[in-house]
């Protein structure tokens, strides 16, 4: 079973860092504009699916602002940076 995630970032550096990690894992991703209903400091977000063999928490770095799971009802907050 896979789940779809949306990562928002403090700066574009976070996008670059996460792109590198997802490429290493062989995960397809999309870099998109952050949805207006969610706040993003750099305005960019990444959307991708992970299977149970990969945990989203392993992708958190200092540039990640928030993480959401995408569901049929909308966005579910999974993690928020305390900054």
Automatic annotation (TrEMBL):
Spell out the InterPro entries in the cross-references. Answer: Se/S_carrier-like
Residue ranges annotated for the Putative Se/S carrier protein-like domain, each copy included: 4-63
Q: Which Pfam families match?
A: Se_S_carrier
In terms of domain of life, where is this protein from?
A: Bacteria
Q: What is this protein called?
A: DUF3343 domain-containing protein
Report the source organism: Limnobaculum allomyrinae
